[in-house]
Amino acid sequence: MEILASLADSLIRGQADEASLLTTRGIKEGLEPLEVLNKGLIAGMDVVGQKFRDGELYVPDVLVAARAMRAGMDILRPLFAKGDVRPVGKVILGTVQGDLHDIGKNLVGIMLEGAGFQVIDMGTDVAPEKFISAVRDHQPRVLGMSALLTVTMMGMKTVLDAMDSQGLRKGVVALVGGAPVTQRFADEIGADGYAHDAVSAVSKVKELLKAGR
Ligand code: B1M
User: Fold this and answer.
1) How many whole angstroms from 80 Cα to the centroid of ligand 1?
2) What is the structure's pLDDT at 1?
3) Domains of the chain by range and CATH?
4) Which atom of ligand 1 sits closest to the CA of residue 107?
5) With the C-alpha atoms ordered 32, 15, 71, 92, is the resulting torsion angle positive or negative?
6) Which of 31-35, 62-66, 70-74, 145-149 has the largest mean confidence?
7) Ligand 1 pocket check for 55: Cβ under 6 Å
């Protein structure tokens, strides 16, 4: 079995050590980090998601898959960080209240750091008041919110509405993302931008900052 398929398979089986070894091997054999991420780790997690939805896997299986994903991401993280970039601005990043999914949010953070942003990661299950006080305290250029559950998505609107009413939107670009989030939803809740994945999150942020949003 080729290396990326084996990596995806190790994730589906929840084998963190194997995922770590195969990620390292892929890089040593000359694969691009982004290819290892997309065609190995994310491809494996997509299958886990389908099997979970179909009732073939259960929450504990998904947890061990998530641990294997993290083991692979730990190998890739330094490869996405460019040593020679100067900080281009602060980002407040978090998963909204009630939502514990953090793999995608962490990837977005890794990619933004790689592009030279200083990322202040608020973690998961972040209450609106916490986002607001972080924006007040750190005065970031970007606020990034992630949601993986349809029932938590509206938490993003709560944060944006509160920022609007407290006059905190000026100079801050609000980016939203996560599997159930769409451009249409982002428009409806008044976010400045939406990104489908971690790579496009970086280009979207740069585009919005350049446009002076
Ligand atoms: Co959960 N889960 N989960 N889960 N889980 C989903 C999201 C689900 C779609 C599975 C399914 O049914 N097929 C489903 C949600 C259904 C819905 O609401 N539409 C679901 C459910 C139902 C649940 C529970 C309710 C299950 C239960 O307890 N019965 C529960 C909820 C817990 C809670 O949050 N309160 C739950 C729990 C968990 C685990 C804890 C077991 C685990 C999370 C571990 C962790 O994150 N530390 C987990 C996992 C791993 C998943 C799946 C399988 C994988 C998510 C993932 O990490 N994907 C997921 C199914 C799926 O999405 N295929 C599922 C890989 C990651 C790289 O992709 O997160 O989409 P993603 O991030 C992408 C983009 O979305 C985007 O860029 C990322 C990288 O390219 N992106 C952004 C993300 N954030 C962004 C922010 C941006 C821009 C882009 O700007 C700021």
Assistant:
1) 22
2) 56
3) 2-82 (1.10.1240.10), 90-210 (3.40.50.280)
4) 79
5) positive
6) 145-149
7) no
